[in-house]
Design a protein that fits this description.
Largest sheet of chain B: 2 strands, antiparallel
CATH class of chain B: Mainly Alpha
Strand order of the largest sheet of chain A: 6-9-10-3-11-12
Largest sheet of chain A: 6 strands, mixed
Helix content of chain A: 25-40%
Distance between the termini of chain B: 31 Å
Structural class of chain A: alpha/beta
Shape of chain B: globular
Radius of gyration of chain A: 25 Å
Number of strands of chain A: 24
Strand content of chain A: 25-35%
Radius of gyration of chain B: 20 Å
Number of domains of chain A: 3
CATH topology of the largest domain in chain A: Rossmann fold
Oligomer: heterodimer
Order of helices and strands of chain B: HHHHHHHEEHHHHHHH
Number of strands of chain B: 2
Number of domains of chain B: 1
Structural class of chain B: mainly alpha
Number of helices of chain B: 14
Number of helices of chain A: 17
Strand content of chain B: under 5%
CATH class of the largest domain in chain A: Alpha Beta
Helix content of chain B: over 70%
Strand order of the largest sheet of chain B: 1-2
CATH superfamily of the largest domain in chain A: P-loop containing nucleotide triphosphate hydrolases
């Protein structure tokens, strides 16, 4: 019976009223790899950030080696022997590999950094795990995969007892994953406890001894490798019922595509992508975080470079090289982070709504026409049901849902032919979500081509006429009809089973 | 021969180039500039002129060291001029009140403590108060200048003779300031390049949240940087007292901007993390040699301001050009 070294029990954590974690538990044992599984937003990263001292829990206990502990800062977690490889890299680009690895715990001789000693220790550590790199290389010059290895070396040198790996393989190639897994097996043999997160099924089953499943911030189960297989795990990770907040599903009736993409390449080494949207259709984009969904939308809206490919809007070939051309062609993007990319928070609703279409309402050829702006806002206020005091109210005072409606109003004012939604309902309440879904539904019926990308699988399933699934910057499938269900989408999103939809792509 | 080759290889190393290409460029520029001017102008190549440059650049050197450390964390200190003025006025006020060597020593100590406290105030507002450095230090600059004016409403005061004589003396034909400078350059270089604190400094400037999750106490690192800036201003201000035998409540006005210019000319990136004190030293010298040349050529002081602006823009163009080609 392996020794249980860490126990987290009844952990809760709220972010501005929304429960990210609700009474969850996590434990790990010496010499074991515990795989933490769950969909996007299940709370995996949150609990690990609590464990490594970056977030403070609102409730619950952490027991380390039989003692109750509480980590106020990342430093105190490190002192307790917990080290984490973060999903987003935490290296300082301007420093060398050696400097990054020993950051915060330099080898000292007479109060000075002993560079030679550091280098030797690092080289012997790299030797031990079969990694080959020059310790004096500036991190800025490394590839993402190499940076990931540096990140892992950084914790190896600290010799922790509990190692947390938050999606370490997401940017690694097969051969590099093998190096990583060799490292993990060596660590296991020396009695380290490891918590491992990955979105790749085959990896989970290759390396995992135990599986902890989270869903929507709740603990689902803890089971042994022997009790579980891919199908059971997927059904544990999903398995919700549809809430009745979605409008009836739209079917594209006409054969004429309103929006067509042929041979689009937006990533340097990606495969060309083809898809189309028929009149009155909503195309959902699904996939696990960071598999190219945002890049695809950015490429279509001119924010990102397109390597090759053609875009046809209403059958007419359109050139979109920058945002200006995108707007001119009637392509509008509702960005995923409205506060950063969508709104000027300190400005009024009128200012924000009028921003994109300012040029259409000039008075005497060069002045802003306040009156025309006001009538326009009244129009969108009733159309989108924006709850506001008056048009001069600052946007930051509005609730998330109303802010999102202002963003939508701004984009609708340019009379778009194609609307790209990235995470349209992130951080807004259920009622506003429902309203938003019906607005999208109506727009699609009016003939606007709608693409909706979301990490919320329920939303994609509830809204989409067809679902395009992405995995590692490629399209693995375009699903329709019966195939739009959680299991099939998850399967494709994990690169397990590439099955083409019945419709023509 | 082998040694030559290894040196050449070292220079070819892209990692070294990444960090030191600017410093290297600036040394070549300084060298060429000095050689050309020495050939062109007989007053310039005079040994006294060089001692003069050395002497007059020392206070800015101190200000620039402090500024560079702050910029490495990604911050900025615009109260450096105020702290130098305060150091100047405070040390002279104390020395006027208390005579003798003891009084002078007390004045030095008290000034260092006072200026470090000023830096600590900046640091506290910026780290614990979470206020933007640029606003905090503009505000404290005004306060420090006000205190200096309160202490010394008009230029004047007296300075301990022995102390002034010691600072003004020459050894081996070189001014004392030269030796102090060498010692401080070595100390700052060790601090920023060889000690864990220097690493932390660059880590905070490079990526603050990454530094935090690595376990670095970000606020302490920043706080100490501002305290150090105050400390260096104290040294600069005390030196000014000894060289002028008096205090002037207007003395520091140009130091904040000049210290930024010197750091940037010396290869410090305004975004933080990259910079070397060896570059900053040369940055200060370049500014003063250009002033010196303009003076020798009899160019009016108005043009000197214009020249200073042009140098800063030029340095910024070079550094942005470099970062684009990385």
């Amino acid at each position: 019976m392996p020794e249980c070294i860490l126990k987290m029990e009844h952990i809760t954590k709220e972010f501005s009223g929304i429960k990210a974690l609700d009474d969850v538990s996590l434990e790990c044992e010496k010499g074991q790899v515990n795989v933490l599984a769950g969909e996007n937003g299940a709370g995996k990263s949150t609990i690990l950030k609590i464990l490594s001292g970056i977030y403070q829990p609102d409730g619950g206990t952490i027991t380390l080696r039989g003692e109750k502990v509480c980590f106020k800062t990342p430093l105190s977690a490190q002192h307790a022997g917990i080290a984490m490889v973060f999903q987003e890299l935490t290296l300082i680009n301007q420093l060398t590999i050696a400097e990054n690895i020993f950051l915060g715990q330099e080898q000292k001789k007479n109060g000075l950094i002993d560079k030679l000693e550091q280098k030797q220790r690092l080289l012997s550590c790299m030797d031990e795990y079969g990694i080959c790199m020059d310790p004096d290389t500036i991190v800025d010059r490394l590839s993402v995969a190499e940076k990931q290895l540096v990140e892992i070396l950084k914790i190896l040198i600290r010799d922790p007892e509990i190692i947390i790996l938050d999606e370490p393989t997401s940017s690694l190639a097969k051969s590099e994953v093998k190096i990583l897994f060799d490292i993990i097996r060596k660590l296991k043999a020396t009695g380290k406890a490891i918590i491992f997160i990955s979105h790749r099924m085959e990896e989970m089953f290759e390396i995992g001894d135990k599986f902890t499943v989270f869903k929507d911030g709740r603990f689902i189960c803890l089971c042994d490798r022997s009790e579980i297989d891919t199908n059971i795990l997927i059904s544990l990770m999903v398995g919700r019922t549809l809430q009745n907040i979605f409008p009836p599903r739209l079917e594209g009736k006409h054969d004429v595509p309103v929006f067509e993409v042929k041979g689009l390449k937006f990533a340097h080494n990606g495969k060309p992508i083809d898809f189309c949207i028929r009149r009155g259709e909503i195309l959902g984009i699904a996939g696990l975080q960071g598999h190219g969904q945002t890049e695809l939308l950015n490429a279509l809206s001119g924010l990102q470079h397109i390597y090759s490919g053609d875009i046809y809007i209403n059958g007419k070939k359109s050139v979109i090289k920058n945002c200006r051309q995108a707007v001119a062609n009637g392509v509008a993007l509702i960005p995923c982070d409205r506060k950063q990319e969508g709104l000027l928070l300190q400005q009024s609703i009128r200012f924000n709504t009028a921003l994109a279409s300012m040029k259409d309402r000039k008075k005497l050829g060069c002045f802003i026409d306040k009156r025309a702006e006001k009538t326009m806002i009244e129009e969108y206020r009733t159309k989108l049901n924006i709850k506001m005091a008056n048009a001069e109210q600052e946007v930051r005072e509005l609730s998330g849902g109303n802010q999102q409606k202002v963003v939508l109003g701004k984009e609708l004012a340019i009379k778009p032919k194609v609307l790209l939604f990235n995470e349209p309902t992130r951080g807004i309440d259920v009622e506003a979500k429902r309203e938003f879904y019906y607005i999208m539904h109506d727009l699609a019926q009016q003939g606007v081509a709608i693409i909706m990308c979301s990490n919320d699988l329920m939303e994609v399933i509830g809204m989409s006429s067809r679902v395009l699934v992405m995995y590692e910057k490629n399209v693995t499938a375009i699903l329709d009809g019966e195939l739009i269900n959680e299991e099939d989408i998850m399967r494709c999103a994990m690169g397990l089973d590439i099955r083409k939809g019945r419709c023509d792509i | 021969m082998n040694k030559c080759k290894s040196l050449y290889n070292k220079f070819r190393n892209p990692n070294l180039q990444y960090r030191y290409s600017h410093v290297f460029l600036i040394y070549i520029f300084l060298f060429v500039f000095i050689v050309v001017m020495s050939i062109a102008n007989e007053y310039f190549r005079d040994a006294n002129n060089f001692r003069n440059i050395m002497d007059s650049s020392f206070p800015l050197m101190m200000a620039a060291f402090g500024q560079m450390i702050v910029i490495l964390t990604g911050g900025i200190d615009l109260s450096i001029g105020g702290m130098i003025t305060l150091a100047n006025c405070l040390s002279v006020t104390i020395m006027t009140q208390m005579e003798g060597v003891g009084g002078a020593l007390f004045a030095i100590l008290a000034t260092i403590v006072a200026c470090s406290l000023c830096g600590a105030i900046n640091g506290l507002f910026i780290t614990k108060g979470r206020l933007p450095a640029i606003i905090v230090t503009i505000a404290t600059e005004i306060i420090f200048n006000g205190i200096a004016l309160f202490l010394m409403p008009a230029p004047g005061g007296a300075v301990n003779k022995e102390f002034a004589k010691f600072i003004g003396a020459r050894y081996l034909g070189l001014p004392v300031s030269f030796f102090i400078m060498i010692i401080l350059v070595i100390l700052v270089r060790i601090l920023t390049n060889r000690m864990p604190y220097g690493r932390a400094l660059r880590a905070v400037g490079g990526n603050e949240s990454a530094a935090y999750s690595t376990g670095i106490s970000v606020w302490k690192v920043k706080f100490k940087a501002y305290v150090l800036a105050g400390f260096f201003c104290a040294i600069g201000g005390i030196y000014l007292s000894a060289r002028m035998y008096s205090a002037d409540p207007q003395i520091g006005t140009t130091y904040s901007m000049n210290s930024i210019t010197a750091s940037v000319v010396g290869g410090t990136l305004m975004t933080g993390a990259i910079g070397d004190v060896l570059g900053t030293v040369v940055g200060v010298f370049i500014i003063f040699i250009i002033y010196n040349v303009l003076n020798l050529l009899g160019v009016s002081s108005y043009y000197q301001y214009i020249a200073q602006g042009i140098i800063l823009i030029f340095a910024l163009i070079i550094s942005s050009f470099e970062s684009r080609h990385r």
